[in-house]
Structures
1.
Amino acid sequence: MRLLYALVRIPVKLTLEIAGRAVSVVGLRGDGTAQPQYAPPPPPPVPRSNGGAPPVAPEPEAVPAPAATPEPAPEQAPEPVHVSEEPELIVEVADRGAEDGAGAEVHVDEPWEGYDRMTAADIKDRLRTQDKTVAAAVSLYEASRKGRSSVLEAAARRTSARPSG
């Protein structure tokens, strides 16, 4: 029985201690309302007089305005010496071979002799009788040259077509 009492008493005691610390951190009053942990300092005291009337500031005397004279234009300050108009190259770094260009260059020859002189309709007619490799060459060549959509579509249809047989 004593062991059971100890097993219950320890968690209850710890819970109450934790709750007490939480209350002191939050600063709750006995009625459950929050008590501010930090109060701003009170305002400085107002100086008291000897009971006489408050001092009155003298009214400014009316001074006639001087005759309007045009103000000279403000002079522009000279530009600081450290400001530069042109950027100055500090260092130039490039990978080996960068002077040759961004990458490989692909050159595609005409798919057949006289291709460049043919109209789009003539090319599409000839594609009907060509195999997929020629159609792929037409697609590459046309994309890098004139880029005619009708020719590119015909070549794409031919390269995706199933072999007849």
Note: Residues 2-26 form the longest helix (25 residues).
2.
Amino acid sequence: MSRRIDTGTPIATKESPRADALKLGKASSEGGDDYLGRLVKYIPAEIVALFVSACGIVPVGKDGAVNCSALWVIFALSFVLVPAYLWFVTSRSGQSPLWPQIILGTIAFPVWAFAIGGPFKCLGWYQGWIASITLAFVTVVFGMYRPRPGT
């Protein structure tokens, strides 16, 4: 299974030739990933796993305090890595990068990190239940977005 979202093959409407239909956004598509397939591919799971494992390595102080600075550095490095990684995996089969997937995946990473906790637990206002609700809604809404057929 490829990490790139399969957008399907564009097909023209009966009223106009294929090129005109695509320009006007009237084309539909054949095939492509369904809702669940898109949903899974918008989540940068490999980088989330890297983030979780790196945060787990950070030692806890003798007083039980977490090193918040180290967690923020891990978050920043992971966040910067997301668009680079998604650009690589969406363009490695010779296709142009799938920018909607790169953008939504880059937005999805901090939402996942927020839900996991990590450095956000160091903030006084952080509440896990709010993070979980945010993650649930963002994930469901992102899966609804379908990139333009043929991209």
Note: The beta strands are 9-11, 28-30.
3.
Amino acid sequence: MLPIVIINPNSTEAVTEGMRAAVASLSQPTGSRLDCVTLASGPPGIETDAHVADAVEPICDLVRARQGSASAFVIGCYSDPGLREARRVSLTPVFGIAESAMLSAMARGNRFGVISILDQSIPRHERYVKELGFEGRSAGDRAIGLGVTELADEERTFDRMLEVAALLRDEDGADVLILGCAGMARYRGGLEERIGIPVIEPTQAATTLALGASLLA
């Protein structure tokens, strides 16, 4: 069976390693191999609208190049850069982690809250929520104030995530949370245990959908 290609559009290998660890439990001996790849030409983190725009063509190039050797693609950035464009050039299913995470969250709760990295990410996320028609199910989006490369500071990152998660739950009314960056993957289990409501890791959500699609192909 052809592999599912999970694309990290930034050049931070630690993010790719976190994605690889997040989906490891989804790998099955008789199923599709999960191939996590890094776009070495990408920025250290997809943190601005310019970063999102710059990622589109390299993602499409990779999707074109791997058409005959993948059963599905996952775009591993919460802004879903190039998702529409990649779907247009691909005969193979393409999944975005943000869209997949929101769909998964709405299957687990009534209103989802998003934990973002930076305040500047939030308007972009909110535009996407409206574009998908999910604004009635969104409780809010709050940032921890750390960039992608700063997420490696585990104690600081987890403390900030816990603070923001509590605000989304207690003040905004979220009954399910979404990690708004692939670089947060390692913190999902601990956060869910401490905060007491479901926490969706987007790469896991998208890969689960990709696995289903590959089985039906």
Note: Residues 49-65 form the longest helix (17 residues).
4.
Amino acid sequence: MTVRIKRVYEPAEPDDGYRVLVDRLWPRGLAREQLRPDAWLREISPSHELRRWFGHDPRRWQEFCQRYRQELAHPQAQAILADLASRARHGTVTLLYSAHDERHNQAMALKEILDSLAPGPGVA
């Protein structure tokens, strides 16, 4: 299974595979024609309340991940996660995010969740 994460401001590459924007809001300064994700999955992005509470504060990272997993427990989100995991088993899925912090963002949390659905080699 191959799940990657990438900032939206980095150029697209052929080995990105299925590119998925996982931000609730469209990234500032980017036209849709520039980013061209295969999907924009706002449904699995953190709620506005959770995003505001977290504020990309690394001290809140562990609790953010726990709260985020709780938000993703509903059936619609579970179906989307299952689809992404399936796509990752057959090719590369790249989760796109706009946060400045490369270690503490929803794409990293989603990658960890997807990795836990089907752990194995090949995760970048």
Note: Helices lie at 32-35, 48-54, 61-71, 75-90, 106-117.
